[in-house]
Design goal:
seven-stranded mixed beta sheet, single chain, alpha/beta, Rossmann fold
Length: about 290
């Protein structure tokens, strides 16, 4: 076990969260989620062992609270009050309800509203969670320093740029960890593009299969850096060049495969900047 004086890259290289016992997750392991077991452990470990109370804990795109519960559980184990600031529309379509809620034991319910469900599921961490409901494009951060930032909401270039503009400037150099849950998802090529444009501000720490990537903030990006890193103004050619640079810089088999697929999808559908629209187009292409 490394100590607090070791460099972050060395700490994360050991993947210490994998050693957390099931008991450490507590009831957080029961909250329905799209997370893998390893990702749940990562969030508990980050809030328990990495965070020092230097800034806020922010969870962007929490579904019904699976990631939020793990972060709040970590704060509880560390004896910190929080809260975890969790952002979502708190809405689920019938497909998501069937696949992720009913399959996890949630009784069937009418409608798409999941806020009350999330509140019930997160009740064990009352006082350590603050839920923010609404379109993320209408949400604004307070400017308070952020120590842990989990992003699972950047489903379009517009959202990706808004998240960076609102939250990245509050990250603490040398301390803040950013987790992009969809970094290697093949329908969200703008994430590697953005992080490649911000490579002077973030360094990769760990990959968690299949899609998640952890980064350490080494220098908080200012307004000018964030403007240069915008993704919604990039044409397909520029994005392809940046994706290729990201693939070579990471030098990971998983990144090579995933980013290669992103490049393939971008060449086939160069104008799409929304993950849902791109996924539907790919499905139609596959069935035709």
């Amino acid at each position: 076990m490394r100590d607090s004086h070791d460099p972050p890259e060395a700490v994360f290289a050991d993947a210490p969260w994998t050693a957390l016992p099931d008991a450490a997750l507590g009831r957080a392991g029961e909250v329905p989620s799209m997370l893998t077991s390893r990702e749940r452990r990562l969030y508990v470990w980050l809030a328990t062992h990495w965070a020092r109370g230097a800034g806020a804990v922010v969870d962007l795109g929490c579904f019904v609270g699976g990631s939020t519960a793990c972060l709040a559980q970590g704060l509880a184990l560390a004896g910190r009050d929080g809260p975890v600031h969790a952002y979502d529309r708190f809405s689920a379509n019938e497909s998501a309800k069937e696949k992720f809620l009913y399959a996890s034991g949630v009784p069937p319910f009418e409608g798409s509203d999941t806020l009350a469900l999330a509140q019930r599921l997160l009740a064990p961490w009352e006082g350590r969670v603050a839920l923010h409901r609404g379109d993320i494009l209408d949400q604004h951060w307070t400017g308070e320093p952020i120590e842990l930032l989990v992003v699972d909401i950047a489903k379009s270039t517009a959202i990706t740029d808004h998240v960076a503009a609102q939250f990245f400037g509050a990250l603490i150099p040398g301390r803040s960890v950013l987790v992009h849950q969809d970094y290697l998802h093949n329908v969200q090529p703008w994430l590697p593009v953005q992080m490649e444009l911000l490579k002077d501000h973030f360094t990769p720490l760990a990959h968690l299969a299949p899609h998640s990537m952890c980064f350490l903030c080494t220098r908080a990006p200012d307004a000018e850096a964030l403007k240069r890193a915008r993704t919604d103004t990039r044409d397909a050619g520029a994005m392809l060049e940046l994706l290729d640079a990201a693939r070579r810089r990471h030098a990971l088999p998983a990144a090579d495969r995933a980013i290669g697929k992103m490049m393939e999808n971008l060449r086939a559908h160069p104008g799409l900047r929304d993950a849902g629209a791109l996924r539907r187009r790919l499905r139609r292409s596959a069935s035709s």
